[in-house]
């Protein structure tokens, strides 16, 4: 009898204890605070499928000036940055030796012209004597041969003088076209050869972007494909299209050369400048999320998404792979799909699994 009462008391006590425990757990579940957050639904927008490459800008009207003769520079008439017209004298190489050669050739021609006059007069005299029967046909032929030889020598000397005069003009370096003078690495007194670079003349407003695309994507390249030149912040500096597509692969870099003509009317870009070129492969649909909703931890991007769990909203941290920025949004390549409820405020107070309450 006593044992039965004892067991009954223990059973009642256990039931009371369990009931109290369940009552406390239910109360704590109802009292857990929910973190107020703002939520935006990830939307799908049309996006450009693009890839950025480092490109080199080269002038389509850039001339590298190199001397056609050897000698010492005696005068430099321009400075870097000067605007020059075609034919303007830029430098002078000492022409003294060449001028002496021209003078010598001209003197030789003058002497030969005197010989030609004498041969001409001799032929005319011999012709008259032959007509009178005083000299033989052989004498006439010999006189004619002497005249022909003198005429040939004069013509040869004329060609030599002209050649040396042309060579003399090479000692005066002139601008091949209108443009801007580049760097001048030589100084007055320097001796230059035919391999020395004197300077450059660049015509502004006409550049070409040299883009090297990995061979893996070469099959997607097409003529007239859109290309954008962008700065470090992604702002577009110029729009263009592919104007040249190399049929060969660079054996060293395993890339394909692509060229795009760039209008540079405002002189914002420079010849031989490294720039970022964005090749636009096409258009696609993809989700975007506000920049404020994305955090970066240890090089990995994350965002919180509000998910429905048993009728309650729970914050779940999602790792992201993001693309470029579009306005104030990131393009999401992986991690979020259109329609997900992205938490855009209060993320600094969130942990994975925290209960949240949406705010207006």
Description:
This protein has 360 residues and is α+β, with helices and mostly antiparallel strands. Among the domains are: 51-61 and 201-284, Beta Barrel (Elongation Factor Tu (Ef-tu), domain 3), CATH 2.40.30; 67-91 and 174-200, RNA polymerase II/Efflux pump adaptor protein, barrel-sandwich hybrid domain (OB fold (Dihydrolipoamide Acetyltransferase, E2P), Beta Barrel), CATH 2.40.50; 95-170, Helix Hairpins (Orthogonal Bundle), CATH 1.10.287. It has 3 helices and 21 strands. The protein has helices spanning 2-31, 96-131, 137-169; strands at residues 35-41, 43-59, 62-65, 71-76, 83-84, 89-93, 172-174, 179-181, 191-192, 199-202, 206-214, 226-230, 236-249, 255-263, 274-290, 295-297, 300-309, 312-326, 329-334, 341-343, 356-359. β12 and β13 form a beta hairpin. α2 (96-131) packs antiparallel against α3. The chain is rod-shaped and about 140 Å long.
Distance between the termini: 67 Å
Q: Mean pLDDT, nearest integer?
A: 87
Roughly what fraction of the amino acids lie in strands?
35-45%
CATH class of one domain: Mainly Beta
The outline comes out as rod-shaped
Helical segment count: 3
In CATH terms, the superfamily of one domain is Efflux pump adaptor protein, beta barrel domain
Report helical residue fraction: 25-40%
Summarize the main sheet.
Answer: 6 strands, antiparallel, barrel
CATH topology assignment of one domain: Elongation Factor Tu (Ef-tu), domain 3
Secondary-structure element order, N to C: HEEEEEEHHEEEEEEEEEEEEEEE
Low-confidence stretches: 1-29
Count of extended strands: 21
Level-2 CATH architecture of one domain: Beta Barrel
Strands of the biggest beta sheet: in what spatial order? 2-11-14-13-12-15
- The helix-and-strand class reads alpha+beta
Spatial extent as radius of gyration: 44 Å
